[in-house]
Design goal:
The complex is a heterodimer of chains A (323) and B (276). Chain A has 14 helices and 2 strands, in the order αααββααααααααααα. Chain A is mainly alpha-helical. Chain A has a domain of 192 residues: MetI-like (MetI-like fold, Orthogonal Bundle). In chain A, strands 1-2 form a two-stranded antiparallel sheet. In chain A, α6 crosses α9 and α11 packs antiparallel against α14. Chain A is globular and about 75 Å long. By secondary structure, chain B is an all-alpha fold. Chain B has a two-stranded antiparallel ribbon. In chain B, α1 packs across α13, α3 crosses α13 and α5 packs across α7. The longest helix of chain B has 34 residues. The radius of gyration of chain B is 23 Å and the shape is globular. The chains are: A mainly alpha (323), B mainly alpha (276). Chains A and B meet through α3, α6, α7, α8 and α9 of A and α1, α4, α5, α6 and α7 of B.
Chain lengths: 323, 276
């Protein structure tokens, strides 16, 4: 019984694979001029409904004075929103705080990632390698909000494990997340913990792209470690490393969930990155007009980042094609 | 002999580094087996009599069941929709290279590069105007939209790697485009499909902000539950929070273990291929 059904299924599948010319709607949709449009259509529909329309909405609204709480209809105000957010010193403080955060986070993660990547380079014969790498890469897939939660436990001034270490060294307890001088560093440290593994991953990929023969040649030529790193490893691995740095830069610029749960931009504005300040103005003050203008500014910044990323990507592809 | 000693020392160092990175996760997992006074004990306890009471309480909690169900349903449905739709588009982008391919790929990527609060603001305005806020379908489709860029990028990379000769051979032998897509191409890019499914799942699973803004009581997932109000009469309810966190971060970590060969492709939008 089951055998005959199987046989029937296999003949019918053979028939569909080798079907003659067909007529009707399916044949029309399968024509070479039409097919690409048909295939892309679902994605385009998603894209238009959830991206194009909202973005146009956002662009439009950025030229209006509109607050959700006032109950008054939007009033056209030209470039007022843009000039007011760009003249507002707090926007620039938040942007420069974000800039410092991104530079420090990405810088530390890259240096640590390169060093740890070199360390893990020869790890093929490590016993339990897969488990070890899972443990190493775990931080980057942990739910950011959850990470914020357990770092709050670790950072706690009274029963946190970190302060216990500090106190056992005879030093006074540190209020990591509520002391304005420390909070920024504390949040940065969590970001470094979370994303250094990503740079390790990218460094391992970069190292894997280095041809073995050239490394052996470098060894025979008695190049120093630093020369081997600069002339052989960086020469071949720089594109992958660059893509990693760019992805990390874009992601660090977006940092939100982690901070939301740990400090929510506080104390004061010590950890208020631009994503948090936009959240506050949009979803706490419901000041939709000026929030839209800020969102448009961030959109332009992101487009610049994306363009840079693609530029490096195509540069790499072109060079791989030439080689 | 000294060579072997050196190698063991090296391996011990690698394990030590891995364990240091995992230590914070281990700490919350350890705390989830403690009673409330044990969590708040000074000095912190490393050895104690473990209790499963927190987990019993967590699993019996209706709010947990509700949010957990939402987390699972949203991630699975959104990702399935996104990958199905993206696969077709990626095939078209790879094979037919329509006029605006590069521009569309660029636009798709730029959605994912935008800070979350800027991406969600216009969608929030639209959802409020249309009355789609806190609707399960609205939430799923939005997550699907947000998973599409990543999936198209990853799948296009994989389809580019399959020779178009397979299509030509299929066409010559009278196969329809439908069979070429589903039965000649799909099996060959299966790893890409798996990578797209896994990494989009992890993204939606971990996502908090969008759900918090355009979701509501019907659609909120565990991250929203974690970030909003879990205090228990003034203090934070650490026993509940630690078991909840542990349960929730386990699936992504297991996925890293089981799908480690896709990790690189998954973390770089498919732009860097290879294994670690």
């Amino acid at each position: 019984m089951a055998g005959s059904a199987e046989a029937a299924a296999s003949t019918s599948s053979r028939r569909t694979l080798a079907r003659g010319p067909r007529r009707g709607l399916l044949a029309f949709l399968g024509r070479r001029e039409v097919l690409p449009t048909v295939l892309i259509a679902p994605v385009l529909i998603f894209f238009i409904i959830w991206n194009t329309i909202p973005t146009l909405w956002l662009l439009g609204l950025s030229f209006y004075r509109f607050s959700l709480t006032s109950g008054r209809p939007p009033i056209y105000s030209g470039f007022y929103n843009f000039t007011s957010i760009l003249n507002d010193s707090s926007t620039w403080f938040d942007l420069s705080r974000t800039f410092i955060f991104v530079v420090l986070a990405v810088g530390i993660e890259t240096i640590a990632g390169v060093l740890l990547g070199l360390l893990f380079w020869g790890s093929e014969r490590l016993p339990g390698r897969r488990v070890a790498l899972t443990l190493l890469f775990a931080p980057m897939v942990v739910t950011p909000v959850a990470a914020g939660t357990f770092w709050r436990l670790i950072y706690d001034p009274t029963f946190g494990v970190l302060n216990w270490f500090i106190r056992s060294l005879g030093l006074p307890a540190v209020r990591f997340l509520s002391d304005a001088n420390v909070a920024f560093g504390a949040v940065l440290a969590v970001d470094v913990w979370m994303w250094t593994p990503f740079m390790v991953l990218m460094m391992l990929a970069a190292l894997a792209s280095v041809p073995k023969a050239e490394l052996e040649a470098a060894e025979i030529d008695r190049l120093t470690w630093f020369q081997r790193f600069r002339l052989v490893i960086l020469y071949h691995g720089k594109f992958i490393l660059m893509l990693g740095i760019l992805l990390r830069t874009i992601d660090a610029f977006k940092t939100m969930d982690l901070i939301f749960d740990m400090t929510f931009g506080g104390p004061g504005t010590a950890t208020q990155l631009i994503a948090i300040s936009l959240f506050r103005s949009a979803f706490e003050s419901f000041n939709m007009g000026s929030s839209s203008a800020l969102a448009v500014v961030l959109l332009l910044i992101s487009i610049a980042f994306t363009a840079t990323f693609l530029y490096v990507l195509y540069l790499r592809e072109r060079r791989t094609a030439d080689a | 002999m000294s060579e072997r000693v050196r190698e063991s020392l090296y391996h011990a160092l690698l394990w030590l580094v891995s364990l240091i990175f995992f230590a914070p996760v281990f700490w919350i997992a350890l705390s989830s087996f403690k009673t409330a006074p044990q969590i708040l004990a000074v000095p912190p306890l490393l050895f104690f009599r473990p209790t499963l009471a927190n987990y019993a309480r967590l699993l019996a909690e209706p709010a947990f069941q509700h949010h957990f169900f939402n987390s699972v349903a949203l991630s699975v449905l959104a990702v399935l929709v996104a990958v199905a739709v993206s696969f077709l588009a990626a095939f078209a982008f790879s094979r037919f290279r329509p006029a605006a391919t590069n521009f569309l790929m660029f636009l798709l990527l730029s959605i994912r590069m935008l800070p979350g609060s800027a991406a969600i603001l216009p969608v929030y305005l639209m959802y409020v105007a249309f009355g789609w806020k806190d609707s399960f379908v609205g939430m799923t489709l939005f997550y699907a939209m947000f998973s599409i860029p990543f999936s198209v990028w990853i799948l296009k990379g994989f389809i580019d790697g399959v020779s178009p000769r397979f299509d030509e051979t299929g066409l010559v032998n009278g196969a329809s485009w439908f069979s070429i897509i589903t039965r000649l191409t799909l099996p060959q890019v299966f790893p890409g499909v798996v990578a797209a499914l896994i990494f989009n799942f992890i993204f939606v699973w971990n996502e908090f902000l969008f759900n918090y803004i355009i979701g509501g009581i019907n659609t909120s997932n565990i991250p929203v539950m974690l970030a909003t109000g879990l205090s228990n009469g003034g203090g934070i309810d650490w026993t509940f929070l630690s078991s909840l966190t542990t349960v929730y971060i386990l699936p992504p970590i297991l996925m890293v273990y089981f799908f480690q060969r896709y990790l690189l492709v998954g973390m770089t939008f498919g732009t860097v291929r290879g294994e670690v």
